[in-house]
Specification:
Elements: E1 4-7, H1 8-11, H2 13-22, H3 32-39, E2 46-48, E3 51-55, E4 58-63, E5 66-68, E6 73-76, E7 85-86, H4 92-112, E8 117-122, H5 127-130, E9 145-146, E10 149-155, H6 160-165, H7 169-180, E11 184-188, H8 194-207, H9 215-225, E12 231-237, E13 243-251, E14 255-263, H10 267-270, H11 272-286, E15 291-297, H12 304-314, E16 319-329, H13 330-362
Parallel strand pairs: 6-8, 14-15
Antiparallel strand pairs: 1-3, 2-5, 3-4, 4-7, 5-6, 8-16, 9-16, 10-15, 10-16, 11-12, 12-13, 13-14
Helix pairs in contact: 3-9, 7-11
């Protein structure tokens, strides 16, 4: 099996996205445009080393991959979880060989850039993740550490009544309160709402003591991702018609993911955030999506923000699924190789000395 590794730019968006869209590994953060988006955020200082795998002139796999010189980390992608994306046309046996070759190429790229580690992931709402037997990390056998997380995922293949019954008592109560107070929810155009979205984003992050993301990040979502219908923006309006909260859903035809959100402070007391989340879940079901990922949860965390997010997301039903993540420490690998080579040199030196003494004795 002769494989060739070529840069993302040399392949182009059409071939790259065609493979991502049809692959069971494919996700929004694997798209050609997503790599363009995160590279355009100058503050993050990412360097693109994404590549495609070619065989007989055909693209059979792609790998989003960026290097961050500040953290010395190599990641897929460096902002938003992704990993090896292999064509569905490959047999399981060949698929494993392709992934192994891809990860070896990633490791070599990391070593060349003096990266301390290499990591990649796969979100729960890809076909590969959903079909992983017993929740076993499908990349467990590729000589890397399993550092998976947990996410709350809702099965949208249920009836509307079952989805509603899966909500907690408090979630149902909050949704009714929001309705009684005149809140409403509808999808809006990302590009038309970028100014208001970013205004609320900054308010939300300042309120929670977190550094806001650069505006260019959300401009990329609006201009590059929503135009492919891979990002849907839901807005909550108060009784005066003012937008008071947003819920940004990343999605494919198979799965959806609560990506980002922001709001005015008052919605926390009026139930509007619950109504907004519920309408987004229902909207994705009507769109024909099978799974909704509410995002990472942290059941055992002592961090107040993580505990609050876990409680909120768990009120919408669903079950915990694994966010498959692996990490490989490249510095350790490099040091080990140096040590092995060093031992080899020592052994070689001892053998040379022994050989020299034997020759002296023989003479």
């Amino acid at each position: 099996m002769t494989l060739a590794f070529v840069s993302r730019l040399s392949v182009g968006s059409d071939q790259w996205n065609q493979l991502v869209d049809e692959s069971p590994d494919g996700w929004v953060f694997s798209l050609y445009e997503w790599q363009e988006l995160i590279l355009s955020v100058e503050q993050w200082g990412l360097e693109d080393v994404s590549f495609a795998v070619m065989q007989n002139g055909q693209v059979i796999a792609v790998m989003p991959l960026q290097f961050n010189r500040v953290s010395s980390r190599l990641g897929s992608s460096a902002w938003g979880g992704s990993g090896p994306v292999v064509s569905k046309k490959q047999s399981e046996k060949k698929r494993k060989k392709i992934i192994l070759a891809m990860l070896e190429h990633c490791e070599q790229t990391g070593l060349e850039n003096k990266a301390v580690c290499f990591d990649f992931s796969q979100l729960p709402i890809t076909e590969t993740s959903i079909l992983s037997c017993w929740g076993i990390n499908p990349f467990y056998y590729y000589d890397a550490d399993d550092v998976s997380l947990i996410s709350q995922v809702i099965d949208l293949q249920q009836s509307h009544d079952k989805l509603w019954n899966g909500l907690s008592y408090d979630a149902k109560r909050q949704i009714r309160i929001a309705g009684d107070k005149g809140y409403s929810v509808k999808t809006v155009n990302w590009q038309e709402h970028i100014d208001r979205y970013y205004q609320l984003h900054v308010k939300t992050y300042n309120r929670t003591g977190v550094e806001p993301h650069p505006r260019s990040y959300f401009e990329g979502i609006a201009n590059l991702i929503s135009t492919r219908n891979n990002a849907v923006l839901w807005a909550a309006f108060d009784s005066d018609g003012e937008v008071v909260a947003y819920h940004n859903t990343a999605c494919t035809d198979f799965g959806a993911y609560y990506h980002t959100g922001c709001s005015e402070e008052k919605v926390n007391d009026d139930g509007a955030s619950y109504l907004l989340f519920w309408e987004a879940v229902q909207g994705m079901k009507l769109r024909g999506v099978s799974w909704y990922d509410c995002g990472a949860i942290f059941p055992n965390s002592y961090d107040a923000k993580q505990k609050g997010l876990t409680t909120f997301k768990s009120k919408f039903g669903g079950k915990p699924h694994r966010i498959f993540r692996v990490e490989k420490r490249l510095v350790v690998e490099s040091e080990m190789r140096s040590a092995i080579l060093g031992q080899h040199d020592v052994k070689k030196s001892l053998l040379e000395k022994l050989r020299h003494r034997v020759l002296q004795h023989m003479s």
